[in-house]
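Deliverable D4.2, example record:
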Amino acid sequence: MDYFLIPLVVMSAPVLIILIVLRYSYQRTQARYDTLLQLADKGVDLTPELLREPGVAYSERRRALVLMGGGLGLIAMFLTLPGQLDNGLGISRLWGIGLLPLMTGLGYLASWWLNRRGDTRG
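Output generated by the structure prediction step:
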């Protein structure tokens, strides 16, 4: 019984986090629409800026730093974990899994740098 509880909690945590974020986003959007409806009922002229959805600032640099940090964290985790796999090899040999987010983050960082460089020239 105990063997199933820990993996269940670990696997359900990301799903719960996503559901919480989606619910918060839905409630925020609903509150915005309610406010706009109240303003329209009072006869206030709604400008196009109010009717547009608020955009999320897209930042390749932020995304790059998060991915690079996650990749380095995975590498450090696997290098420091004790234990062995079924075939007798150490878990520390799995450190390469962290290279995927690390290299993806480096790609985003390069893209951000090249786009920034292009904006200052033109």
